Amino acid sequence: YQGEQKTTPTPEAYAVLQKINEKLNSDLKQLEQMVQKTNLTVPEGTVTDGLFFREQLFKTGKDLHLLASDHVTTLPETLGFSDELPDAKRVPLLLRQLLTIQETVTAFIESGAGVLSLVKPLDPVEHKNQDTGQVTLVELPAQIGAECDFQTLLAVLIHLRNNSQAIVVRELQVKTKEEETLQVQMVASGFFIASKQE
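and the corresponding structure tokens:
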């Protein structure tokens, strides 16, 4: 206030500003708790972070294919990630994106989708603080293509809404393929609080 040559706030105005600040801090803590549940960390002593991600990717792919086999659901062979060993700095983001894919694909399988034709991680989207320009939140979207009926799609959306992971359906395109069968293209996003990466 002094630097900008403004008058000092009155005690009443200061009390209001303090309440606003407390509310914002409370909201931030709630967001951190919701997203923190989903942040996977590389165990201490891991020699190569990228190798740890590849191991998690293999394990998740195997688990999803077993689940799909039990539910007679067709899955793509891979989960769409590059075959290259990722840079260590990207591993926390990739782990979170893998978790988003795992939860979304599981929702489709368990809800009764017959075919998942596409599983594709998309480029991260950084959300910056307008005042400082620092990245505060990273959105980690994944595209899913599926064939199912309306009740299955509804069950998937409810499953994702009620999921303990923070997953938001960003885009949803639905076309009728044949009687009672829908072609669904969905973009679902997980989130990563940038401060947790440091």
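(Above: one complete record from the training split.) Strands lie at 115-121, 125-128, 135-148, 168-178, 181-193.
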